Each structure stands twice: as C-alpha cells, then as structure tokens.
Q: What sequence folds into this?
C-alpha cells in the first residue's frame, strides 16, 4: 500500500517538474560556465580575481558602486589576496572625503585600507540622473541578487546583440539576449583589448567577462572558501558522530529487542 | 507528575527538592515511560526543540549586530556577513534554520495526522501545538522582513494589506499595524521587537506542549492505549534520548549541507536588493513554508474571501479532533483514511508549488482544486470516512501485535525500517 503511494508521489512530482518550462519559456537560459568556485570544495581562481578587480576598477567602477566592500578586503584570505603593499597602494590611489575637521570643514585625503570602496556618485539620484534615469545597481551583492547568479551576470556581459527585426529600441537602450525583458540601459562596455592585464593574459571580451564575474562572485560571498572548507569538516565530524551514536543506539536497544 | 515517588539521595538534594521539586522533575523526565515501538517519525519533537534553541541562540547574537532602521538594516546585515566574526555562519544558520524548523514541524504535524495523535485524550497537546505553529509563522514572517530587502518590504506590504480587507475598520487597522501610512521604518522597528518576543512565547508553549504530552503519554504507531510502565514501554532515558540523538544528527547533516554549501537556495534572490518602495518585484512570493496558504489566498477572486479562507485553512485544524469521528487512531488500521491522508499530503505539496507560480491559467485552476480538496478533506472526508470505514483488526498490545494474523501490523514495522 505504502509502495503504491510512493509511486503516486513520484509520478506527481514528475508532472510538476514537467510543468516548469511553461513559466520561463520566453527567456533564454543563462550560459552555464564551469566556475572554479562551484561545488562542495570550490575555490576562487586568485589570478582571475585580481584581473577581475582590474576590470571592475577600470571599467565598471565609473558607474557602479560597491559600497559594502573595503579596500582591506582585497588583501584578506579567500579573496584576490593582494599583498599588504598593493592594498595600501590601491587604497591610496583614491581620494576619500573625510571630516569634519576641527574647523568643521570636510576635506579629502588619500584612501586607507580601512575605507569603503569609493562610490562614483554621491547618491542614487545622482547616479540615475547621470545614466539616463537608470540607477546602475550597487555590485556588492549583485551575484546573490540575481536569479542565475554568476552565470546570469556573465551571460548579460557577453549577451549584447543587434535587436531582432521588429524590435525597436529607444535612445540609450540596448538589446541583450539574457537580460530580463531583453532591454538594458547599460551599453556594451567590453571590447577585446580594453584593459591591459598585468599578468599578460589576453583581454578578450569573454576573458574579461569571466574575470569580472569571478570578482563579483567573491565580492558577494567573500566567505565562500572558508564556508566550503568548514563545511567539509563539519559534515565529516557529524558523520563520524552519527555512526558512533548509531552503534550506541543499536547496543542500547538490543536489550529491548531481545525481549521479543 | 504527582504520582512520581522520588527521593534524592543526598541531604542537600532532599532539602532543595522539598522546596522546589526540580530533581523530581528530572527523575520524571528520565524515567518517563515511552512506547517502545515509536518509529523515527516520532523523533521530530526533539528535533524541533533543537531548532527552537538554535534560532534563539543565533538570533540573540544577530540582534547584537543588527540595526532595525529602514536606512541601516540592509547594510547592517552585510556588516554581519562581512565584518562580524563568523557572522556569515550565524546568519546562515538562522536563515536556513527557519526553513529547517518548518520542514520539521510539517513532518511533525503530518505524523500526528497519520497516527491520529490529535485524538482524545491528546486534543490539548494538538491545540497548543497549533498555537506554536501559528506563532512560528508570525515569527518567520517578521524575521523575513528584517533584512529589508525587496522581498522583505513587498512581502510585508502584501501580508499587512490583508488586514485592510476587514470591512469598515480594515484601513485603520492596517495603518495601526504599520505605525505609518505604508510599510516604513516604524513597521520595521515593531517587527523587530515582536520577532524577538515571539520565540520566548513559543518556548513557554513548548513547555506546556510537553507537559500536556506527559499527562496521557505518547501515542504510538499502533495507536492503542498502553499500560505505563509495562512491557510495552521503555524509560525515556537512555532509549529515546539516544534514538532522538541519532535522528537529530542525521537532521543536522542535512541542515549543515544547506548552511555550508547552498545557503541561499531556499531564499529569494530579490531579497539581496535593498528595499525600494518605488519598484515592485515581478512576482512577490513568501518563503516556501507559507506557500500553500498563499495559494489558498490567491485562489479566491475576492480579497476578503481569500483572507477568510486562508485563515480558515489554519483554524480548521483546531477543531480537527472533533471532526474526526473514527474510534481508531492510527491510519495503519484505517485502509480508506490512509488513502485520503496521502491525497492530502500531495494536495498540500501541490498548493505549495502553485503558490510559487503566477496566479493565472493552469496554476489558478490547480490552486482552486487544491483549496477545495483541502477543505473537503477536513469537513467531509474526516467525519464521513471515520463513520463508514471498516477498520482492520487492532492488536491488544504492542508486545503482541498480531492478534488475528492481519498484515497491517507488519506494515507498521515496515514503515519503521524504511526511515
């Protein structure tokens, strides 16, 4: 009886799963990339993170803020792991507003590792006004804030196309295969050879998109490597403990079971 | 508990116990005679206690770092994730813990439905349990608002707006709940206050739930009354404690799997977008554990009707002990009811599924069919089947399960083995 119920159950779920595609038929699924940070023991590709930061700094940062990150994060374990000197130099390359000083005046000074990433605009309204009314979203947790995560971000970056016939676009609106609704206000900013990678990697559009997406994935989940490492240990510990408790249980219950 | 004769061995223990019989309570909890045939579906009581304690402990730590202000809440959560030592771990345990809590409570409730644990003399245990469940939903809903992401804000807007469906005073009540003319900073502040309060109310009710349980004692898979203590029972410790510990560990492995390897899969990605009253998300969906009720709500074209139906779906459970007319508790001996039980399980899962989908086309049809069956199950099926059903022969005791050589008791064993 129970078995037939379970069969019914499985059938029912297969039915539900088969209903799923109905919902997302009009959207193109994001490209599936084999990211190094995928899976149970996934880690970030250090070199890719450093290159990704370069793309962010030279391309994205002119419009997109990353207000929850600090320059010191760039040197922390599990991230791009720039050296202390490099982090200090990166931070110092930005002019940060500070103050008020004893006279009540605001002043600027070179950035320190403890400073948050400098935002390109003073506020959301200014950012929207400078970008045709569309606010370039803060990228600190962008990868977690989009269905499809890193795959989606990467796909949008490489998904620019000429609009299919019949689709007309307003000024300052671009066609993107993977964007929800296919219309995006961000122009296609990546072109081959746009940045000069310090490590000599060829800066193709695909390479830059992958690197910056890796960087954004780390920015959204800077704890990922530690989380994976701790998780493996925790699961192994729990498994061993479970086995021990299971054996104890069998021994204790053998007193009762033998009475039968 | 009064029937328990216990005298502490030490003089100091006796002195203390005469003034506050905590040691007697400890002895009662240790020796508490428990049916020896409890299967693993019975381990979820202990698992739920673990879930509650986990939520309270992690929640207290989170509250030390969280800021309940509309302008700062989202940033304070990111501060917890990035700058607080192991903040990411504590927050992920707390957010996934809510899901695990509901997973366990649904199994616990359906176990009760299958084995008739809500029936006489355990109605009060059942009702207290439902009160806990209601408070859990309130706590979870308010907790989901606290990160002040898009789903937080719009979920809060949808749910609080339900109260505006009340005739005449609806709008006033909604404004009163908000503390403003829309979901805003005062709403967030009071939700935080209540979110901190409710778990302790739940804790109090859990004590009553267990107290009420210890009066008649546990139901069991065979569903018959047993003499306590007897050959049919084992002392709670060490027999049940070790079994609960084993089940809890298996549960914790699944829990850890979510926390460490896929911590955001049960949440909605939109909640990592800061709340914006000017932008409505394409689909506003609650957390998965509230989806069946959301489906019932949306299955009715009329707002007030939907609200009434949704609350009825919960409150009908309170009178379940009196809707069920069967003399037999366990569905193991109820061949007809057993079929309907599984239909109900599928029905609720289906409602949960369509609750996550847009309320249109086939999904709306499924939601309506599911809603109708949900109510039919309790209002019609339970009284009528209980009345008409020819139940299988019931054993006299757990130790002698086979009275007439029927196949059903061995089925009970099979369930036990499979888990």
A:
């Amino acid at each position: 009886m129970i078995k037939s119920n379970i069969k019914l159950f499985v059938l029912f779920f297969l039915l539900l799963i088969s209903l799923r595609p109905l919902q997302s038929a009009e959207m193109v699924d994001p490209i599936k990339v084999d990211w190094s940070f995928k899976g149970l023991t996934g880690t970030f590709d250090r070199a890719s993170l450093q290159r990704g930061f370069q793309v962010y700094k030279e391309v994205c940062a002119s419009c997109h803020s990353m207000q929850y990150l600090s320059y010191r994060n760039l040197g922390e374990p599990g991230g791009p792991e720039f050296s202390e000197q490099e982090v200090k130099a990166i931070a110092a390359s930005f002019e940060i507003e500070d103050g008020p000083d004893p006279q009540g005046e605001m002043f600027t000074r070179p950035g320190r590792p403890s400073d948050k990433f400098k935002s390109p605009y003073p506020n959301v309204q200014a950012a929207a006004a400078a970008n045709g009314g569309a606010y370039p979203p803060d990228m600190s947790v962008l990868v977690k804030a989009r269905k499809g995560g890193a795959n989606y971000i990467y796909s949008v970056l490489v998904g620019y196309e000429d609009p299919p016939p019949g689709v007309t676009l307003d000024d300052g609106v671009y066609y993107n295969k993977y964007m929800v609704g296919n219309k995006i206000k961000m122009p296609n900013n990546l072109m081959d050879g746009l940045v000069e990678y310090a490590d000599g990697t060829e800066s193709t559009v695909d390479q830059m998109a992958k690197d910056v997406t890796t960087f954004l994935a780390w920015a959204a989940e800077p704890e990922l490597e530690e989380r994976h490492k701790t998780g493996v240990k925790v699961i192994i510990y729990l498994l061993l403990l479970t086995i021990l408790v299971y054996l104890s249980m069998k021994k204790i219950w053998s007193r009762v079971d033998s009475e039968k | 508990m009064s029937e328990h004769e216990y005298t502490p061995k030490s003089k100091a223990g006796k002195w203390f116990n005469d003034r506050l019989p905590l040691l007697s309570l400890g002895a009662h909890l240790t020796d508490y005679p428990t049916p020896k045939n409890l299967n693993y579906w019975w381990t979820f009581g202990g698992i739920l206690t673990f879930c509650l304690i986990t939520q309270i402990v992690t929640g207290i730590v989170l509250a030390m770092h969280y800021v309940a202000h509309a302008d700062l809440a989202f940033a304070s959560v990111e501060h917890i994730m990035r700058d607080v030592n192991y903040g990411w771990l504590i927050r992920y345990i707390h957010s996934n813990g809510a899901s695990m809590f509901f997973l366990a409570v649904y199994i616990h409730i359906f176990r009760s439905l299958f084995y008739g644990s809500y029936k006489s003399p355990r109605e009060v245990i059942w009702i207290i349990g439902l009160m806990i469940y209601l408070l859990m939903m309130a706590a979870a809903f308010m907790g989901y608002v606290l990160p002040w992401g898009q789903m937080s804000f719009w979920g809060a807007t949808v749910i609080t707006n339900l109260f505006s469906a009340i005739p005449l005073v609806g709008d006033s009540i909604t404004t009163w709940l908000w503390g403003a003319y829309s979901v805003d900073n005062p709403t967030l502040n009071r939700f935080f206050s209540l979110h901190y309060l409710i778990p302790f109310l739940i804790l109090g009710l859990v004590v009553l739930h267990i107290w009420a349980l210890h009066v008649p004692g546990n139901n069991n898979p065979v569903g018959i009354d047993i003499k306590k203590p007897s050959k049919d029972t084992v002392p709670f410790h060490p027999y049940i404690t070790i079994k609960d510990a084993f089940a809890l560990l298996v549960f914790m492995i699944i829990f850890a799997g979510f926390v460490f390897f896929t911590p955001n899969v049960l949440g909605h990605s939109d909640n990592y977008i800061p709340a914006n009253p000017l932008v409505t998300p394409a689909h506003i969906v609650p957390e998965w554990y509230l989806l069946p009720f959301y489906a019932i709500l949306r299955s009715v074209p009329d707002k007030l009707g939907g609200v009434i139906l949704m609350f009825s779906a919960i409150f009908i459970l309170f009178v379940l002990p009196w809707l069920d007319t069967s003399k037999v508790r366990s569905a193991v001996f109820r061949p007809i009811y057993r079929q309907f039980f599984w239909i109900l399980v599928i029905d609720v899962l289906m409602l949960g599924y369509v609750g996550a989908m847009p309320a249109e086309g086939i999904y709306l049809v499924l939601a309506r069919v599911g809603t109708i069956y949900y109510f039919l199950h309790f209002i019609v099926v339970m009284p009528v089947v209980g009345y008409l059903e020819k139940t299988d022969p019931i054993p006299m005791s757990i130790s002698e399960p086979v009275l007439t050589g029927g196949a059903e008791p061995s089925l009970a064993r099979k369930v036990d083995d499979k888990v």
In short: The first strand of chain B starts at residue 33 and ends at 35. Chain B touches chain A through 50 residues (CB under 8 Å).
